[in-house]
User: Fold this.
Amino acid sequence: MLRLFAFLFCLPLAVLAQDGKPIRFMVAFTPGGTADTLARLIAQKLGELRGVQAIVENRGGANGTIGLDAFRSWPADGTSYSVISNSQVAAQLVAPGIRWDLGRDFEPVLFLGDSPMVVVINPSKVNAKTLQEALAAARAEPGRYTYGHCGPSSVHQLAMELIKIRAAVDIRQIAYRGCSPATTDALSGQIDFLVASSPAVLPHMRAGKLRGLAVTGARRSAAAPDLPALGEEASLKGVAMDNWYALVAAGGTPKDATARMEAAVREVLARPEVLERLAGAGIDVNLGGPETVKHAIAEDLRDFRPIIDRAGIRME
Assistant:
């Protein structure tokens, strides 16, 4: 197995391209987000390290469902890839008219890692220094406080709804079309709480404009090591939700092509300068093979359904 991996690792990525076609990456989210950051950095480094032309195409909307629907028609010749998020797992459960299944219609290539979501408050709106204090304030005045998230049925919304269920608090939700506008309203005091990807809020936390209370994953994040994980709060013991990302190929892509791409992206994401840049953007690299991708999708499909049903989450 090690010899086979070494052999694949050394093969030129150019053999993936048919008739000189470039490698294409679909990002089903708007530019500047975590999926876009990962795709563009991978594309850039594949060009530098392997001399391959790689193009990133953004087609955002409807929590990543529009882009994935378009991706279904891309050729399965080893040139078509997409960076997906588990927000699309949630969208699969709620979006009307979905014509694809993440676990069935695409070829898993590589689990990339996660970008921890952060629960933050505007300190001028919520008088709290810890998550426990903030939840106590919300519990004392049901319905007074609001929270923003990065899109209907996004994992950001699911994370906060899970917190609300477990902590028995009533905080009204306000949906945004992306983390950027949600963060803008948190900064201006239009909303009290915010659950967003770490790249969106870390600069404002460092500037003291937003106060971080916790990361939503099962463990602390290297991007914000001083913030506790949700489960460290006694009332939220066992609560965790990651915002993970993975690379998939167009459905029907040959296994040898996806294996070569997996090896090439592993090479890219092992580079110290790449890891440093991603860490600075709040992205924790945690690589896993195709089976890891399949397991993550199946696990979230199972775990998200009760939260969606309990909170009545729908996509209009």
